[in-house]
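Case study: Type I restriction enzyme endonuclease subunit.
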Amino acid sequence: MRVRESTIEQELIEKLGELKYTLRRDIHDRATLERNFREKFEALNRVRLTDAEFQRLLDEIVTPDVFAAAQTLRHRNAFTRDDGTPLNYSLVNTSDWCKNSFEVVSQLRVNTDYSHHRFDVLLLINGVPAVQIELKTLGINPRRAIEQIVEYKNDAGNGYARTLLCFIQLFIVSNRDATYYFANNNTRHFAFNADERFLPIYQYAAPDNSKISGLDAFADAFLPKCTLGQMISRYMVLVASEQKLLMMRPYQIYAVQNIVECIDKNLGNGYIWHTTGSGKTLTSFKASTLLKANPAIEKCLFVVDRKDLDRQTREEFNRFQEGCVEENTNTESLVRRLVSDDAADKVIVTTIQKLGRALDPARADYHQRLEPLRDKRIVFIFDECHRSQFGENHQAIKAFFPKAQLFGFTGTPIFEDNASYKRIEGDEQTLKTTDDLFQQSLHEYTITHAIEDRNVLKFHVEYYKPDGKLAPKPGETLAKRAVVDAILAKHDAATGGRRFNALLATASINDAIEYFVLFKAAQAEKKDSDRDFVPLNIAAVFSPPGDVSADVRQLQEDLPQEQEDNKQDPEAKKAALKAIMADYNARFATNHRIEEFDAYYQDVQQRIKDQQFPNADLPMKGREKLDIVIVVDMLLTGFDSKYLNTLYVDKNLKYHGLIQAFSRTNRVLNDTKPYGNILDFRGQQAAVDAAIALFSGARKDQAREIWLVDTAPVVIDKLKEARAALDSFLASQGLGGKPEDIANLKGTAAKVAFVQHFKDVQKLQTQLDQYTDLTAEQRAQIETILPKDELRSFRGQYLQKAEELRADQKKPGDLDEATRNEVEQLDFEFVLFASSTIDYDYIMKLITDFQAQGPVKSRMGRNELIGLIASDAKFMGEREDISEYVRGLKAGEGLSEDAIRAGYEKFKADKAAQDMAALSARHGLPVAKVQAFVDGILSRRIFDGEQLTELLAPLELGWKARAQKELALMGDLLPLLKKRAGGREIAGLKAYEA
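Here is what the predicted structure looks like once written out:
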């Protein structure tokens, strides 16, 4: 028997009562909510407001701007009373959040001019609605509650924008078994789609990272009054530069709590083991800012080890809080800020190199100025604390600041197994591991935890074997041309048809140079033999030798292989790098010079990050993106891009170096990026296994299963099962297993089932498409399970049915409850059905090929071409037009691509004019007037009811006939408006979306 939503709500209210919340059954609408807020406000600020003053206060504080409301909630504010006297007030007790009143309201109804909503449970802090809890019946995906909140917030004139609900900081959704929470935000940060790119959603966890998902356990852990107050006041970050609210993840909160406790109790040093990509900068920022308020601490230094990280970290800190960290341009500036009493100088971001120079015994002037700090409590927080220069500076810091506490962040700690050399020779012991240096681990969130949480992806590792030959022995090098040929053969598969990009890690600068030359030659040969081959855009980055700028010298300090390489024949390396940069300039119309290498390096990084596939935020043009960047040491640590998914390895890696390099590939994007791809040309399976075992924390026995994706045979078996399940479902509907049979599905429930079954098939197909190690037999097996033509046809049917179901969602009254729940839970992941290589330009080229003259055989026949268009989500709005245009073309007509494009645009314009003329005639209206009405709506993206009244006025209809005519006309215009709006919303049309 299904547990009712009302039962879950009642159980939660009883639990909150146990947690000493006050249940306010008397608060049920906007008036009673505001009356309670007034009482709490007046008590907190020891004031009595007149009715006029209270109304004016509400007018001042209620705002549709979520970020502004969040700031008002956290700060002391000013208000002018009716008699002109000032009132400085707070909405809540911000000095001690635990001392606020905490109340529960259920089934609150808020009606505004344009919006009528009911809210399951609200938590009030001092009368301010701070948390909204939306509940769903057991078995309904909480995602539906998230979508509902997004829909409420997008409703014109909603209560979130026009009432005290603007102060909501957190949303919690649950179906009793699964509970999630997320921060409130302005609309641009509050979209919820298949990418989940704008709306981070969290599950709470215990200190050991085990999930707390049941609503009862979540309430015990997250909703005690003081805990909730801390979550909102201390562990939410207001990102000023983006006007955005950010919630810290549970492991970040525990790390900060443990650092602060360690300092408060003066318990010595410690380190945080949080895996690469887990947001260490935010954690360290929050620790630093909390220390800023601690009077026992004189200074807090956040220490990084490279100039680019110094800049990046400073920018990140200032992103979280504008102007909180100033630039340290040199060592003198650092020393000046260390001795300053200015509050702005309490938290300092600096490089370990500058800190080393400041503490250098040879610099007596610095020592003399820093002497007053010797006996002060200073906190040092080190980013990536295992880096090469740390050991020497550790001793200098401890010698000069005996009362200092040192904290380190690392994604890959140094253990006995991976300690490559002795760090410090002290009198009593040799300090070489992270434990030696920092005494104790304060919190761990390993890559194993991050993969399980989907914060980072698993890896697919292929150990390359040349055809018909044995795999290389560990560390053995293959001929570079063989590696180049293998990469060219596998790159499109590995990167999802160049949707993503790749790094090639090489063993030396000379190797990198040789690879760049070989790729150029190999691609020229390939282009000569295959007219359809599109060359990859390839760049290389390694630090220049010789006399370089201070910026580059600082970069080189953490690039040991490159430093060593540049000692040999520096002029030849400089000449090669100039040639590589000249090639880059010619390709991308840039003007980089070796003397300003840092600008080139930044441009390469940005180009890797900016690669986006069609139909996303940034339009991608083939000539703008990088496909492969050849590296030696650069970019293998500390560099993040969601669009980098592949690492080619022709370099010996081990332990932390291996994990750091692999982790460049596994940033989460969406289901089109199922894992990070590693193609190893050095036979390093033993090294990979050893690294996985070392960095898995307490889960060594399950590490391989967690870290690595299933092998191809396992996924092929899953694909076979998914296809069999699809066929079985179709058979249960009295249909064969062919794509064309889908058109005969009857009823919404059947459409829902088909969409779910085929999405399972497509996800597995996407995963296999990016496997680089499929054998010919395995490819044949996949083709047997799901032939390509059949897959394409099924994709077209999926998109068709998904569109129909989206329309069904608009009229839920036609569905029974069970089917409606199924439809509401559907996640139409159209991103899975949008090819990276098939865009508008590509389709136009195919159409040109199709009707080309001469002996060259077209790549596709007419029906294949129409099927390809129908199977890609990008063309959902234009599918019928393009298909109809293709049907009207003559094969062999020999039109140019420009003529094809112009012909298609004219075809669309003519068709639109015919449709408009037919619609106008049907309704007895002048076509020019209807066209002007439509153009006006589209230009402003707002439906204007007065304009509609004017359009129909010449018909001189009575009110009843006019109302019927309005509905009939708008019923015809709605699909036309939506099509021409291209997916963008038009305000005011909801009344006609029956």
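For the exam, be able to explain this: The mean pLDDT is 81.
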